[in-house]
Amino acid sequence: xxxxxxxxxxxxxxxxxxxxxxxxxxxxxxxxxxxxxxxxxxxxxxxxxxxxxxxxxxxxxxxxxxxxxxxxxxxxxxxxxxxxxxxxxxxxxxxxxxxxxxxxxxxxxxxxxxxxxxxxxxxxxxxxxxxxxxxxxxxxxxxxxxxxxxxxxxxxxxxxxxxxxxxxxxxxxxxxxxxxxxxxxxxxxxxxxxxxxxxxxxxxxxxxxxxxxxxxxxxxxxxxxxxxxxxxxxxxxxxxxxxxxxxxxxxxxxxxxxxxxxxxxxxxxxxxxxxxxxxxxxxxxxxxxxxxxxxxxxxxxxxxxxxxxxxxxxxxxxxxxxxxxxxxxxxxxxxxxxxxxxxxxxxxxxxxxxxxxxxxxxxxxxxxxxxxxxxxxxxxxxxxxxxxxxxxxxxxxxxxxxxxxxxx
Length: 408
Hints:
alpha/beta; Aspartate Aminotransferase, domain 2; seven-stranded mixed beta sheet; 13 helices; 17 strands; 18% strand
């Protein structure tokens, strides 16, 4: 079955009839991509500044990806009942890059959070500390949509339809050092923190605050889970975003770009906590399969060659400076620019829900988050010229939306 036989209206009709309505899709049907550009079913081109929500970091039709997809077609899945050549190699890459000891592979960011929470409770129990079962998370956090990961997600709009959730989950104000020191206590199994909150509005935690969380965990033998599903693996110009600070994680969660579009997630665990899981405690049918792991090894080769991270730093700084210049011109409506590498949020004084549609009409993909923040997660290969083109269109939309907000 080929995409040529479908048009947008046909696809929409099929989905309206057969797909559960959990997504508000944009009215566009993509059929192929190249570099940082996607093409729709009628040939229109769109510069991508969201990259599949931070997944397609090498863009589209990358030669490494094409080669692996062709060569690995004869062995895409084995299950974890057997060995294949690539899982151990990828675990080695992750542990060497993070300074941690061992990895467990799954399929998504949600699954990494679930595994990290389970491991924390199991590890505390195996230390004889059965009273240490609670979790501490931050206001504004988002860790996933399963019952466990949702329980440590602080945003009520995600939680409310499914309550009551897993008990023993407590929330503290992000950045409040005193509350962190008092809330992390003898009942705390683990603290979970996004180095940069993604769905919460692209909000980074300061190195000083991360150190406070690390010290508070150490004081009561709690584990520190660092969630880098969205901000990790090169997005900020370092392999992991927490490497901009002095801390080390006990459990690191990564996903989104890890499999370059093929579902793959991982937790990477410090030596002290690896015996929390024993054979039979946790598992996955698809996690860490040959195709996903081999693609991820190609991704690490790109990262380790050095030029990709340098490009992220250079273009990210260029992007940030251009936005700061716009903020000077529109200081009454651009409240804050938050940027590290190519993870960028621009907070406005009015809702940003119309920006994605209006930018789509102009040939650009981006999205909004946390009501008033425009979020940009472009591929790591984005160019300065492409950033300029997007910001020209974004400024037009900014002026239009600001005028509409003022009139309302």
